[in-house]
Specification:
Layout lengths: L2 H11 L3 H7 L3 H10 L4 H4 L10 H7 L3 H9 L14 H7 L3 H9 L15 H6 L18 H13 L14 H7 L3 H8 L16 H7 L8 H7 L15 H7 L3 H9 L14 H7 L3 H9 L22 H7 L3 H13 L19 H7 L6 H6 L14 H7 L3 H9 L14 H7 L3 H9 L14 H7 L3 H9 L8 E2 L5 E2 L1 H7 L3 H9 L26 H8 L2 H9 L14 H7 L3 H8 L16 H7 L3 H10 L14 H7 L3 H9 L16 H8 L8 H13 L14 H8 L2 H9 L14 H7 L3 H10 L14 H8 L2 H14 L15 H7 L3 H9 L23 H9 L26 E2 L6 E2 L6 E5 L4 E7 L1 H9 L4
Antiparallel strand pairs: 1-2, 3-4, 5-6
Helix pairs in contact: 1-2, 1-3, 2-3, 5-6, 7-8, 8-10, 11-12, 13-14, 15-16, 15-17, 16-18, 17-18, 17-19, 18-20, 23-24, 24-26, 25-26, 26-28, 27-28, 29-30, 29-31, 30-32, 31-32, 31-33, 32-34, 33-34, 33-35, 34-36, 35-36, 37-38, 37-39, 38-40, 39-40, 39-41, 40-42, 41-42, 41-43, 42-44, 43-44, 43-45, ...
Amino acid sequence: MTAPLLYSMLKSKTRFPLHSAIRLSREDVVFLFLVEHSNELARLLNEPDKKGELPLLLALNSKQRTLATSLVEHGASVDAQDPRGLTLLLNAVEREDSYSALFLLEHGASPSATTPDLGDTAMHMIANQSCSANPSQDEEDGALTVNNMIQVARKVLEYGLNPNMQNNKGYSALHLSILNDNAALFDMLLDYPSLALDVPTQDGHTALRYALLRNSLGEDGLASRLLTKKANPNPMYPASGDTLLHLLAREKKADAAVFLCDKGGDVLRTNKRGETALHVACENGLAELVMKLLHAGANVNLQTLPSTGGLSEHRQTPLHLAIQNGCDAVIDAILAHKADVKDAGKTADLNLKNSSGLTPLALALRTGMKHKVADLISAGADVNVTNSEGLTMLHSAIEQGDSDAAVFLLEHGANMSCRTPDGRTPLQLAIVNSLPIVVESLCKRGVDMSVVDSKGRCPLWAALEDGMEDIASTLVRFGVDTDCWGAGPEGCLQTLLHRAIDENLTSIACFLVRSGCEMNAPRRPGPNGEGGDEARDGQHPLHMACTWGQEQVVQTLIEHKAHVNAKDADGRTPLHLAVSNQNSKITSLLLCHPELDLSVRDKSGLTPFAAALTCRNNKAAQAILDRLPSAAEQYDNKGLNFLHVAIQRNDLESVLFLLSINVDANSKVRDSTMSTALHLACSVASPSATGTTEDSALLVRNLLLAGARPNERNSTRQTPLHIAAVSGHSSAASALLQNGADPDASDVDNNNPLHLAVKSSNLPVARVLLTESTIDAEAKNLRGQNPLHVLAIYGKDQVASSICELFLECMPQYPLDEPDLEGNTALLWAYIKGKANLCRTLVKSGCCVGMMNKEGITIFNYQTPTKQLLSKLLDLLGKEPPWAEGDMCLECGSKFGITMRKHHCRHCGRLLCSKCSSCDVPIVKFGLNKPVRVCTTCFQVLQSGVTT
């Protein structure tokens, strides 16, 4: 078909006649197109068709060189881009089309064009093509051989491409040739004079790193050839400060690292953390590399630096890292190097500490590398080095609860006396952390078991207080002091047993007793006499346990033969204390002891039975009687038995208890009084005594019911009724009278109960005696005094007048003017004693006011500060009183005779001479209206009233 016809057909059938003509290889049709569109060639020659293909690309693909040249000459761009943004050159290289690539380069295509996504040049794209040096492809089939692409590569370089250009990731063609095993390109580039061997990628990797990773480590390998060309064996990674040697070790490329070490790798260079390649190798367990680095002079004692954040461990030596990561082979390599090299400065210092203060040995213990501890110690590691907290490895192992490690350290010479900064010993730590195996190991090696901790606790107490009896048993088994005398309350000295009982720690106390501690020692004063009551109370542990009611401790002490009869400072036995504290179980335990002495008295003279009664512990008292029936009849140092004491205390309950066990109700006090129980009951049974009057009366009545004799005499021949009269206990007196008491019984002074009742001004008792008995109220004692005399002498004035009125009420004819042996009447005694009320009562009752005693004393001449009472008494006279008789004037004392006649004062009744009764005055109140003879004193009273 002719060119015009075909061109016309193409134009009518397709939008892109040029592209179709090129595909049909019709240069003549292309020529017609060029002629027709000469003004638009710049646009049309670079316009892709629907498939995105450019005219020039179609011509080159079909190797129509002439047509391609014509297109270029008419304006087709050699740097035109396909729809992906690739230039025609990059498109051709991508397709391994060396023909097109060379044509384009020869016609001015840019050798530096890059792909839009990765930034690869044509050289990068060639490097990415994996090719061997011996191609096998058939050139006639259109495949490119390695030599063709290398020719393109050379051409690219020839036309000005920089061989060191890097793509977007920083890779150069050299990097990619190594990564893709493109040996032919690698060889060509290596011979290029301006090739940069150490250009880093964005990750900082040089070509050498990739060469080493390809395991091409022989003398003809890629790495050796790079190094021969002076590639830097120690490129640095700025971000971390690592060298290539660090990186290889970190990636565990031991063979590559060993190779690099032989080829000049810097074994001393550190990264930003202060790590050398040796640190990294040790961390990753590369034993072979470690040996190589050590022999190459790596510093085995170099310590790492703190990290930027300051969070991770630092000051780590290579050995620390090997231990931390459990690398046995590396540890062996370092220790072997230490053994082989004599220069100590070049070998591992096994006592360097990391930032936590841990030596390699301490770190091995902490990280579970115990199987290496022996090797480290054999190599010279100090087992007693302290960490940053001042703790030895033994301390740390114990604090971490690692018994095996602690025992292991002890077996290898760890110091068991070394203390922590706060003063704790390994033994104390082992107890606190509950490590019985460690405690036993320490004890076997003779550790000091007496050292106290910061709380003042000895090891045994610390173990017991924390509830670790197994550890305490271990300590006891190895001979710990079970007493451990130490400071107690207020500075006194006490044993552990004292302390356990005092703090109510029953289990501890029992353990100590079972372990053989001292059971019979009281607390004692401190070195300088310190201590309060506890230091001097003399109480044994058994006393203390009884006081605190610790039954289990008491039983354990008794089982281990503690002294049951021991006395404290007050003479009390444990039984005294148990009874006083109402502890029936402990009392029973003690009473079961065959050696118990129930007759022991305390300083108050109380036996255990007496103590039981004193505190009203009847149950204990009965238990004691069951053991010793005669206990109730014992007397104290005052001669009192228990019944007497109970009565003195007005303890009705105890009295009833004693009476119920048939004690002798008539037993007498063994002292000078010889009082019976009934005497005592009457003496204490007063309203002022402890308890109520009703309770006291019950004492008397119960004693009488129990057979007490109401007329029993004491040493002064007083009956209980005498005592009741003295004490003022009317109920007791009434009870006694109802039970046959003799109201007329007299004592050694011939006083009957009424004498004593009025003497004590006990009106209720006097009323009982006068109204409930046939008592002789006129009976006289040895001084000739009847009860009224005694009342006038001793009675209280406020009560005496009432008693006198009672007498007159009960005995209207009572002899008021009866004199005693000295001639004193009741009125004279009352006037002498100044009892105005009683005097008035007697005067009103018609008592003679003029009576004189044997000494010549009357109420008129008795010397008083004033005569007011006398005047009042005279003024009270309501009727003519009885006349006094005698043989002398009661005023002047003149004897009556033939020449001296007797006269009486008609007002007071006194016997007077004529001279002393010379006054005459009518006494109207007596009905005497005519003047009658009166004495001077009465005259004054009658004339002027009561004088002051």
